[in-house]
Write a structure and sequence with these properties.
The chain is of the alpha+beta class. The protein contains eight helices and twelve strands. The radius of gyration is 50 Å and the shape is rod-shaped.
Length: 449
């Protein structure tokens, strides 16, 4: 990346430009204030001189005598109408200095070396009771020299200060961005095989420190997701390998004994394995879509009792050895996605039927705490206490010995856990009164909301 396009360069240029503009504005203001202040001092001196001349005239001093005293650096004129009555020697014989004689301060160019003069115009009365205009002026050379000197100093100082600010900004921004560059460099070197690496956290508790914490948190999630993905792919491959191997074995045995093979029996076994693979693929696709899009929770009313009865009927049609009891199902309404809620009941009943010896019970009940609780009980071996959390992980089974013959791939309860979390519900396991496991799902009661 070009240095001029870096954050450091942009910040330096912006800070320097702003500071330069402020300095230029301040310089103009300073020169203006300086000129005005010195001009005000001249005005005060002119007014005092005019007062002294007026007092001298009142004491009877002739105008000619007053006009020629001590006027080396200034001028004096007495005007009667549009005629010069008397004037200081340095402007003797010149015309009226100021047009429109009235009491005021102004700046004029005098015939004296064409220098600017500050003049004060007022009225006074001679001993002969003649009212004349008095013009008193003084050279503004000192004002101009002082302002010019200040201007020259500022012409050198302002760029120098702006350059100093640019240098300091460049250094400070570079020092402040050094941890960010370290974070960037570390992240750039992290590959798929070393996700355990983390960015170096700065020693300051500021925005950069928070950025480092955020980056490390993101890397934690990426590493965790990568581990889960690898485990997921490994488990999925393992699960798919088994039915594929069974199908291949059955076909090889059948083809090796073409005349004696019971082909209808092989077809039934292959169909069973195919259905197992289909269920596994369907579950994998559901989990993949859920991870990509999140839980698809629709805020519609769901009659939980009707869903439970419908799933119980389906479970009965798929299991001849297990009796499914529904006598404890009572009315209950929740808000959510009907298909997702139905899948919760379906997976819990399928899990219970696979593990039950002879009986499964499903119940729906509303509590005084504003919850609707679904319970699925079985009389199977139950779930050990140490497995009651791990059983909801993907491809997890409480007993590997009974896993594949009953069709379980270890995804059904993981899907249940995902759906339950998306519906703001809770999922727990207890010991059942039937002797096996009791799965409890507690939904918020829609009628209590």
């Amino acid at each position: 990346m070009s240095r001029l396009r870096s954050v450091r360069a942009k910040t330096t240029l912006a800070a320097s430009a702003i500071f330069l503009l402020v300095l230029i504005a301040s310089a103009f203001a300073l020169l203006s204030v300086l000129r005005q202040s010195m001009t005000d001092n001249l005005d005060l001196a002119l007014q005092l001189r005019a007062d002294d001349i007026t007092v001298s005239i009142e004491r009877g001093t002739p105008l000619a005598d007053i006009a020629i005293e001590g006027e080396d650096d200034g001028v004096v004129q007495f005007i009667d109408g549009d005629q010069v009555v008397a004037a200081s020697p340095n402007i003797d014989g010149e015309g009226v200095l100021v047009d429109g004689l009235r009491r005021r301060f102004t700046t004029v160019i005098t015939p004296v070396e064409d220098d600017p003069f500050r003049v004060f115009v007022t009225e006074t009365e001679t001993v002969d009771e003649v009212v004349v205009a008095l013009i008193v002026g003084t050279n503004m050379e000192d004002v101009e020299e002082t302002v010019d000197a200040a201007r020259s100093t500022l012409l050198v100082g302002v760029p120098a200060l702006a350059g100093l600010v640019a240098l300091l900004t460049w250094v400070m921004v570079g020092r402040g961005l050094r941890p960010v560059e370290a974070i960037r460099a570390e992240v750039a070197e992290i590959g798929a095989t070393d996700l355990h690496r983390r960015v170096p956290p700065p020693k300051t508790d500021d925005e950069i420190g928070k950025l480092a914490d955020t980056m490390n948190g993101m890397l934690d999630r990426i590493e965790s997701g990568s581990v889960r993905q690898r485990q997921f792919v490994s488990d999925a491959s393992h699960e798919l390998r088994t039915p594929i191997a069974i199908i291949r074995h059955e076909l090889e045995v059948g083809l090796a004994h073409r005349d004696t093979t019971d082909w209808p029996m092989i077809a039934e076994e292959l169909l069973e394995e195919d259905l197992r693979m289909q269920r596994l693929v369907d579950d994998l696709l559901w989990l993949a879509r859920h991870e990509d899009n999140g839980a698809a929770v629709a805020h519609v009313l769901v009659d939980l009792d009707e869903v439970a009865m419908d799933q119980a009927r389906r479970a009965r049609s798929g299991s001849d050895k297990v009796e499914i009891q529904t006598s404890d199902i009572s009315a209950g309404q929740v808000r959510g996605n009907p298909d997702e809620v139905g899948r919760v009941l379906q997976n819990l009943l399928n899990n219970a039927c696979r593990h039950a010896d002879s009986a499964v019970s499903v119940s729906v009940d509303s509590t005084d705490a504003g919850r609707v609780v679904v319970a699925v009980d079985d009389d199977g071996p139950g779930v050990p206490a140490e497995m009651r959390e791990a059983i909801f992980e993907r491809f997890s089974r409480s007993d590997e010995a009974r896993a594949r013959d009953d069709g379980g791939a270890g995804l059904g309860l993981a899907i249940v856990a995902e759906i339950v979390a998306g519906h703001n519900a809770t999922l727990t396991i207890e010991e059942s009164s039937l002797g096996g496991a009791r799965f409890l799902v507690s939904f918020p009661d829609a009628r209590a909301v």
